[in-house]
Amino acid sequence: MKYVIEKNGSAVSQVSAWTPAFAKKCKLSGNASAPALPHTVKGIGILRAVRVERVAVTGFQMANDNPGVVVGDEWLITQSVQDRPLEQVKVTLVNKVKLVRDRIVSGGVIWSPDGGNTTYEVQSDKDSRFEMAGAVQILEHTGATEQGWRMLDNSMVVLSLSQLKDMGVAIRNHVNACFVRQAELEAIIAGAATVDDLHAIDLEAGWPTELADQAEAL
């Protein structure tokens, strides 16, 4: 609950929770809670409870408090909606693009070792990419011809060095495509002239196909 002291239709104090400092302002030092309201503060005004009628806003907007008015026994504050500053929204969208990129980069890819007859869902997160590069290096260094690899469904598949490399290329192409799309969206955001232009940008469009959609397309 918030409170304000009002006099002749105007606030003569800041809106505040009931604190020792505000109790002192109301000449009620030592009171742990507010008195029954409305309460006349002698020589200052009337202590009233504050009610805020909030408005719904999007990520492109902000709510501003309008001046309060007395409605019944309360001090009512309504809100109005205002577009956030253009550059502020751009920063927000650029950050959202990065989150989408990270999600899709790490979302996995479908890879086939034999032109599509057999397919596997392969993890594409940063740790998996690092482990794959290490596996290729070990095979090349030791002269071994095969390496077991754990797929996204936890199955273990034995792959040759050439298959491991091919799988790595597929994952790298997926990752690179994500960074390309990120750069494209960042350029579109930077070139937007209005908040409406930004609102029209579909941050989910144009990315490499996500794993579930890849599977549906097979």
Task: Please tell me about this protein's structure.
A hairpin with a 2-residue loop joins strand 6 and strand 7 (74-83). The chain has helices at 20-25, 86-105, 126-142, 161-191, 195-199, 211-217; strands at 2-7, 10-11, 39-41, 45-53, 61-65, 69-71, 74-83, 109-111, 120-122, 146-150, 156-160. Helices cover 39% and strands 25% of the residues. The protein folds into 2 domains: 2-83, no CATH class; 86-217, no CATH class. It is an alpha+beta fold and 218 residues long. Helix 2 runs antiparallel to helix 4 (161-191) and helix 3 packs antiparallel against helix 4.
What share of residues is helical? 25-40%
Strand content: 15-25%
Arithmetic mean of pLDDT: 93
Q: Indicate the low-confidence ranges by residue numbers.
A: none
Oligomer: single chain
The tally of beta strands, per DSSP, is: 11
The helix/strand series, from N terminus to C terminus, equals EEHEEEEEHEEHEEHHH
SS-derived structural category: alpha+beta
End-to-end Cα distance, whole Å, is: 58 Å
Largest sheet, if any?
A: 7 strands, mixed
Shape: elongated
Write a concise keyword list for the protein shown above.
218 residues; alpha+beta; two-stranded antiparallel sheet; 11 strands; elongated
Topology, element by element:
Elements: E1 2-7, E2 10-11, H1 20-25, E3 39-41, E4 45-53, E5 61-65, E6 69-71, E7 74-83, H2 86-105, E8 109-111, E9 120-122, H3 126-142, E10 146-150, E11 156-160, H4 161-191, H5 195-199, H6 211-217
Parallel strand pairs: 4-7
Antiparallel strand pairs: 1-2, 1-4, 3-4, 5-7, 6-7, 8-9, 10-11
Helix pairs in contact: 2-4, 3-4
